[in-house]
Amino acid sequence: MKKKAGLWVDHRKAIVVLLTHQNTETRLIESKSEKQLRRTGDSPFNGPYEAQSVPADDSQEAKLTGSLNRFYDEVITCLSEADSILLFGPGEAKGELHKRMAGNNLGKRIVGIETTDKMTEKQIVAKVKQFFHPGP
Question: What's this model's pTM, rounded to 2 decimal places?
Fold first, then answer.
């Protein structure tokens, strides 16, 4: 039985829609990544100790990258049974995930990549169904 999947993804969450002939299944995968802290000009720590109050940018970047890699691995595991995959979403996450999937030999299964805005779960399901089963 052929399984088709649609994936709306950004850096905070992924909504996976799995389609078979009889069933539609939706899964939500949330990222545990946090946005980077920003240094502000009106910090109470201005002065010689300000640099110690906010983690270094490279350590924050490494933490964010590790968190996103775990998130992408979870998404890839969810898509591993799919024969055809549609990737879409508003930002860079779909491109990053596409590169990662190519490294896992899932890249050949991707049949489309689209840039879309934020969508509700119902809109995502409708888009995936329309993509794989277009009407007359």
Answer: 0.76
